[in-house]
């Protein structure tokens, strides 16, 4: 007593949820700002990323964990390296234009100002902790990291200046 096969319908019904419709609409508006890397703040940001990476890799290749001062320098270097990469992605993808509720000029000023101050402290701590008597094997790495920490500090100082100019022009409007 087999049942005869039912006839198949050739009609296909497609439904779309509002989530996928919103997702596809929002992802299509994601922009890419190629010109940002040609600006002085963009170049400073790339320099901060490259030299900041150099600072913490020069220290990470040593026994820095035996000396608390170098632990502080590592914390500052890695923390601001990650945040700078994050902000570079935000600026390159122009995400800041899609979230107008955030006062981006103030956020940039606070970020760059805090990076300048903490990197300056870390660079001074790094430089004052480098002695041949401490560890002769790691001396060159620590000395190089100290030099590059001061260079990164000057880059953050420059970006703080440009962030201040941008913030000041927004508040005057």
UniProtKB/TrEMBL annotation:
Q: Where in the cell is it found?
A: Membrane
Q: Name one GO cellular component term.
A: membrane
Please verify whether the record's keywords include Transcription regulation.
no
Q: From which source organism is this entry?
A: Orthonyx spaldingii
* Residue intervals of the MARVEL domain: 36-168
Q: Which GO terms describe its biological process?
A: myelination
Give the keywords, sorted.
Membrane, Transmembrane, Transmembrane helix
Name the gene that codes for it.
Cmtm8
Membrane topology type: Multi-pass membrane protein
Q: Name one GO molecular function term.
A: structural constituent of myelin sheath
Q: Please verify whether the record's keywords include Lyase.
A: no
Protein name listed in UniProt: CKLF8 protein
Can you tell which superkingdom this protein's organism belongs to?
A: Eukaryota
- Membrane-spanning regions, if any? 36-59, 65-90, 102-122, 142-164
């Amino acid at each position: 007593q087999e049942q005869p096969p039912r006839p198949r319908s050739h009609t296909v019904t497609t439904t779309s949820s509002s989530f996928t419709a919103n997702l596809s609409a929002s992802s299509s508006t994601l922009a890419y700002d190629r010109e940002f890397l040609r600006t002085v703040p963009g170049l400073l940001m790339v320099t901060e990323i490259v030299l900041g990476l150099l600072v913490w890799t020069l220290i990470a290749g040593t026994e820095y964990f035996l000396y608390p001062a170098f632990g502080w320098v590592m914390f500052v270097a890695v923390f601001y390296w990650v945040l700078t990469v994050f902000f570079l992605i935000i600026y390159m993808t122009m995400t800041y234009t899609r979230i107008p509720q955030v006062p981006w000029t103030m956020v940039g000023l606070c970020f760059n100002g805090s990076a300048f101050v903490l990197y300056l402290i870390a660079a001074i701590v790094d430089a004052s902790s480098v002695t041949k008597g401490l560890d002769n094997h790691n001396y060159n790495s620590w000395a190089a990291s100290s030099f590059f920490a001061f260079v990164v500090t000057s880059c953050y100082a420059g970006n703080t200046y440009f962030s201040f100019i941008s913030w000041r022009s927004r508040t005057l409007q």
